[in-house]
Amino acid sequence: MLKYILILSLTVCTAISVSAQKKIKLKSHQDSLSYALGVSVAETIKKSGITGYNAEIVMAAVKAQLEGKAIMDASGANKMYQDETKRINDEKQKQAKKAGQDFLAENGKKPGVMTTSTGLQYKITQEGTGASPDANDRVTVHYHGTLIDGTVFDSSVERNQPATFGLNQVIPGWTEGLQTMKEGGKTTFYIPSELAYGSRATGKIQPHSVLIFDVELKSVEKVESPGNKK
Asked: Residue 189 catalytic?
């Protein structure tokens, strides 16, 4: 409900002409707070992705709501807002999923790219000569992670600090992929969203994102599995 009220407040601000906005003086804390609310809500609306609304109707609704004469109740309006943002997000996810599938379909045809039964793709860029890890082992790697559009979302290379972790503590694409490597080797992994974060978003990674990792396996620390203990 608060989001709905703030959205109405923002549309009041949009009724102010550019020239009038230039005359606004923030003479008190209340003035500054009011302006800050407008800026914050503007950012919320931009991030929602909603476009194509009729500004005149929006402003008329604000006036009617403030006067208690609105022809749509607040709960109904809020539901419409939520339904629209859900529709936009669903469409974005649908497009992202298709973009990932199209990328993998083309990438899988490239020389040297291998595809496993799970859909993981990888290309060996430097053969290793040391030990290969299994799912219980710990590994130390250098990696550089990007999205299919080239956006860097994580990179131990850029931090100049290799990462060490248990191979059963990471996304399935890493757990499977690192087991195809040997110490000293370098491989590029193309990980479908199903083997990464799926429909979840994290940082710069949006739902249904294919992840690309350039990985160097620096060392393997063998860990005895519980079932093999005597």
From this structure: no
